[in-house]
Fold this sequence. Notes:
321 residues, alpha/beta, 5-stranded mixed sheet, 10 helices, 10 strands, globular, binds xanthosine-5'-monophosphate
Amino acid sequence: MQNFSGTIDEFIKQACESIKTEADGKPALCAVSGGVDSAVCAVLANIALGDSLTCLFVDTGLMRKNEGDQVCEMFESAFSINLVRIDAEDRFLARLQGVTDPEEKRKAIGEEFIRVFEEEAAKLGEIGCLVQGTIYPDIMESGEDGHKQVKAHHNVGGMPTNIEFHAVIEPIKLLYKEEVRECARKLGLPDSFANRQPFPGPGLAVRCLGEVTKQKLALLREADAIFTEELEKAGLNDEVAQYFAIIPGLQTVGVRSDERSYEDMIALRAITSTDFVTAGSARLPYELIETVADRITSEVCGINRVVLDITPKPPGTVEWE
Ligand code: XMP
């Protein structure tokens, strides 16, 4: 392990001990998103704290198609951990109204998450501590620990400074993605968690460039679902590290039913990577890309053009914002 001198078993043991010490007998809330990072934290915190732990899944309205239901089903079938689901779409979208700058967007989302967590913690009684699945690349890219800033990850640089929680516990903050996946397997988490592709905390907001609107999100969700469906059908979803659609918020001229159209464009991104600190463009079969483009332009009303992003990281980042 790169930042921990010991085995995975030793790491798990030490992480549980420090969660217990940091929680200091207070109730704990663990923010889960369905991703492997927060799922590993939830299991570690459950081992360390037992019944004083509540897991919280916040549906921000920035999730992919049907994702909220899928995450809750995955969670409920894999663990016997108390999970509370909060529908916070209206407040997140209201908070993002008029926000176009990528960093401002991340900070607005980071702050809104914390306010929702605080409100839910207060409902449960005392506001104790918050457990969250920050990993080392989030810290690096947010410009902490001696690194140069790339972007304020919602859970690090995007966090507000005035927080009511008595402590924010980040049990896996020294780990890289592949090490988190190893931990997940050691802890017996199903592959649906251990191998799940990353999804950013700010969700579709960083794939919906410029102002986030319900209408742009709806187009993006449909296009993204078609891309996912075709990759899964081709059996490529396990080979490609991360794949998704982006809505740049750019309209272009096209032709539909012999008439001029002026509609939105969708970009597709598929990458190879293990640590997500660097990434390459995944070489998808051309026929697959054509099928996806055909389906998106014919099935998603309001999209008349599809482009493919083949930029490696660096110089591009994985997400467009
Ligand atoms: P970038 O875009 O920085 O992405 O090259 C690297 C990996 O991190 C994910 N990502 C995030 N995850 N909060 C997260 O939890 C964020 O703010 C965030 N930004 C990017 C991204 O999806 C990729 O896997």
